[in-house]
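Thread title: Can someone regenerate the structure for this chain?

I was given the following input by a collaborator and told the matching structure tokens would be attached. They weren't. Posting the sequence so someone can regenerate them.
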Amino acid sequence: MEESISTSGGYEFLALGSAELKGPEGNQLLSIMARPKLVALLSYLAASAPRGFQRRDSLIRLFWAESDQERARSALRQSLYHLRRSLGEDVLVTRGDEEVGLADRGLWCDVAAFEEALDGGRREDALDLYRGDFLEGFHVSDAPEYERWVDGRRAELRDKAAAAAWQLAEDAQAAGNEAAVRWARRALGLAPLDEALVRRVIQLLDAVGDRSGAVQEYEAFAKRLKDELELDPAPETQALAQSIRARTAPNGRAKAAKESAVADTREAAPPPRELKTRPVTHTWAFRLGMAAGAALVVTLLIVLSISSDESDAGFSRLSPTRVLVTPFENQTGDADLDPLGKMAADWITRSLQGTGLVQTVPPEAASQLGATQVAASAEREDERVQTLAEATSAGTVITGAIYMSGDSLQIEALVTDAISQRAVANVVSPPAAVDDPMPAVEALRERVAGALATRFDGRINLFADVMGQPPTYEAYRIFVEAQALSDRGHTQGSSHLFGEAKQLFLQAAELDTTLVAALVRAGWAAMSDGSPAEAESLAHVADSRRDRLTVVAAAQLDQLLAETSGDKAAALRAARRMPEIPLDLAIRAIWTNRPSEAVAVLTDNEWYPGALRVAGLYGVEQYYWLFLAMGYHMLGEHEAELGVAVRAREQYPQSLFMLQVETRALAALGRIDELDGRLEEAIDFPDQEGWLPTSVMVFTAFELRAHGHLEASLDAAEKAIAWYETHPPDDPRDRERRSAMALAFYAAERWDDARALYEDLATEFPDSVNYQGFLGTLAARRGDRDQALAISEGLAGLNDPYDFGRDTYWQACIAALLGEGEHERAMELLRGSFADGRKFNLQLHLDLDLEALFDDPGFQAFLEPKG
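Best answer:
Regenerated them for you:
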């Protein structure tokens, strides 16, 4: 006989907002809530749609896809055992050998009740249940498929709630009910950036006579849009607001008759979603998380205060960053170990004091409070924790126990958010000898401090799993110092900081071998420092321990493995798993010839450059504008490209890097007069750590030539040469200056001058593929076929695994210049170059060595954007 599935019973699972699980007596079941994988499994069984029995193989794919079949099935059996032990035999049921579900009347879930109320037309009841987004702030580090399911359900449930609230508003308006405004504001709170909904709310407010309220709603929306997305309201929204402002009398019924009703609805309505006090890690500013130049970087946002959405007055005095550590309970049965519980609490308290991230309740006060009548009178542990928290205004409480594990002693600490009343970290010490417990105390002290630091510091909590294995505090401290250096490395002239960051990341990994994310970040720093072999080695070490990585860190690892093997498609797939990092995704889309995807990603996230600027990542923000403009350029949308360039220069008017973005667009549009003015402007710019005024001139020359303006191209190149002649370098053997001048000669078609410099450079730096490549193309240009082929063969003999097709690309350029008989071979080499890992960018349509292929149908098809 089949078991029926329902959602009513003695246990309550609240998943709308912060997750909570309550027993029949109202007690929090921390035995489950302290384990994220158990919470995740329970949430899927209770809140999936349609609800019912779930196949075991589906659960394995969702939660243990990375494990082999035997290990995954064992992990599922263990998880189901723990759920059954905590919830009772009657709650978790099976059907046959392969299906699992929740029994009828076993467990009530607010998600199921919410949807059942909506299906029954009871919208008000449904919205009473909607406390917040589905599993707000909850994640499981090693189950990406589950995370995607949560994201989808979260959006689906929020949309249902917003639609229900708006339907109630429309029904109330049709009935002349004053609740219309309250429900409209509730709908807007659920979808604060839905501009169509904003207009409907404004119109409703105007219709009930609250003209000033309508205008205020518009102004609040315009501010939200500007703050979060750096956009202005649509013309129709602006026109609606203007028409309301322009009237001298209220619309609809008299405003005076509505004043009190509107005031009541404002007071009763919950605040708009984005205006609630939320954890910084849930806001758009934190979602910028990481950006990309040569590799990912992480924002410098430091979260030093986290507030709850709870409006209950009983919680209003609790400070999340005020921490109470209670004496640990001795569960060993050995009374001689009683003092160890107080010692552990003291050590942890004093360790937390030194972090500077939190305030602590003095150990003496915590000890006295733990023994008070009021705390002792609490019947349940969760009541005792809450009583102590309210007595000390501590929003974070650390409790613990000492117990025996075989012949050894272990200490466990549970970190509880007293505001939401849920466990946020569970830390267990390594075993220690009973007669020498201090190693366990010391290890616990370090990891509890690391757990709190990770929880309150946005620079690391994307990478470290607080509920799983938080890092030691010392490893955390070094990790964030390394991240700060890595962030700064993306500013022009600061690339040397990547090497320093790498060493610090490695030091953090040595201090705490569980912090595998430090190896991933060290790999990226090595990649950015020009050491791909070292980066690949570090990536493979991290890959062997990927079970300790969060979702973001695992995606970063996969991207690093792809980058070091030249697999651009795999790098793009990994970037798509991190939609919170739009710049990184856009760069990988460009590199795989998908400019449409890059433009869509960046335009859909226009909040991103502002967030980067607020975080102080100015160098990275410039990459946002560069790649957005590049995407438009590859699509041939040059007016849009110019618009991006103008916006970029408004932010960075003295940046040669951004001036280059503008001159490229003007060159493509053929606006020569304006372009000449920009090049004259460039002459007066100072050197900018690797960028000279000539950099703009030479790249503009290539762009002009690519778009059919040969005379203007040669003129721009000559301007660069003239600048070099009037600005001699301090060191006449400066390699970068000589290379740049050789390129200017090449752009100006002064082949002999270019050849002289490249021969000199190639003699001095014989391992340079680029210098050999230029000598090969110059030989082909002067008709020296034998030398050109000899250089091409020499390039073919190179076996650098991290060259990523550069040698093959030069062979293609030489073949293209040797005449039509070599064009088919040139195309074959060109395709091989990109198959070997060469990245798409603007080079293909700019390279004058490939001009002979520009009319070739195969070349045109190769250049055509793929997405």
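Confidence is low (pLDDT under 50) at residues 1-9, 252-316.
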